[in-house]
């Protein structure tokens, strides 16, 4: 039986690998990955089904379906993942302040 510490380490490892996968999903318009853009709000997994809680830069984003397909394809590369569900939320609202320093510099945002 795995200890509580081992289970937490396994969860952290899986979360890290999921974030690594998502860092390869590049927004085609902004040319920055979703993680650095600050669009990923949470990741959870139950019985091989990953739920990605995320937002978009704006309501009615014209590439939302493209991004969702890219996310699914990326996460399904992990052996533990059988299915991906994407939950789009609008609270808290996305703003450039949610971007990483790298993304702000790459996009020339100085706000």
From TrEMBL:
InterPro entries: Fe-S_Maturation_MIP18, FSCA_dom_sf, MIP18-like. Residues 18-87 form the MIP18 family-like domain. Transmembrane segments: none annotated. It comes from Paucilactobacillus suebicus DSM 5007 = KCTC 3549. SUPFAM superfamilies: Fe-S cluster assembly (FSCA) domain-like (SSF117916). This is Metal-sulfur cluster biosynthetic protein. Signal peptide: none annotated.
């Amino acid at each position: 039986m795995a200890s509580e510490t081992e289970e937490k380490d396994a969860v952290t490892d899986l979360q890290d690998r999921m974030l690594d996968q998502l860092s390869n999903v590049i927004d085609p318009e902004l040319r920055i990955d979703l993680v650095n853009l600050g669009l990923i709000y949470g990741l959870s997994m139950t019985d091989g089904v990953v739920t990605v809680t995320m937002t978009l830069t704006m309501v009615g984003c014209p590439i939302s379906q493209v991004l969702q397909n890219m996310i699914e394809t990326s996460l399904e590369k992990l052996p533990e993942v059988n299915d991906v569900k994407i939950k789009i939320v609008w609270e808290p609202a996305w703003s450039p302040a949610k971007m990483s320093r790298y993304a702000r510099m790459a996009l020339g945002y100085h706000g």
